[in-house]
Amino acid sequence: MAVLDDEQDALTESGISVGRGEPLVVIKDVNKHFGELHVLKDINTTVNRGEVVVVIGPSGSGKSTLCRAVNRLETIDSGTITIDGKPLPEEGKALARLRSDVGMVFQSFNLFAHKTVLENVTLGPIKVRGLKRAEADKRAMELLDRVGVANQAKKMPNQLSGGQQQRVAIARSLAMNPKVILMDEPTSALDPEMINEVLDVMIGLAQDGMTMIVVTHEMGFARKAADRVLFMADGQVLEEAAPEDFFTNPRTDRAKDFLSKILTH
Question: Does pTM top 0.70 for this prediction?
């Protein structure tokens, strides 16, 4: 929430939470098939403004598909998804406008290789939001400083480490002042020593009140930053609980089995 606009920034800095707790993303009766494979089965959940929801589960459980469906990178076969009270548009300018409100951070950084770090971050605000270059540059430098790579602003992406590139990707997403940020395995392509630098940025965003849906295998992040954990398996949400409840007292055998494997390695 601290990145929505100047007024909310000021309120957040003064310790006042703005609108926290109001429904922002509502997923209702969502189903998705890939051919014969039923990858999302009657998914129902609500993400409130300012909430961090971490989606975990075994590979092939539908986590990434659900994340990508929230901004219609994947279409759904039935059900509804609404963002801030508005249904996902089918296509066209309305969908483009919605996507500008829904940030996306992928496991592969997806930076423009032929543009500098600064240009990567300013492109969306200038082209989509209509910001003047000077204003966009100023905002971009603030965000690059926030994620710890302001000194890399003039470099090309291939001159950066994987961790630095992912932090630039987060800054690029924040530059659009999104209502919610989706993160699909944001650390899975990183070398182990680079993971913490990205997780630290994500934890900072969570502490600032940014609404986030994060698909990840990083259980430490889930414990530390999540308001709620969704456990998915076989296309279904089998459990939904506060991190402490989920990790100490999983209700289903499937979750117990998953945790026994992932927490001992």
Answer: yes
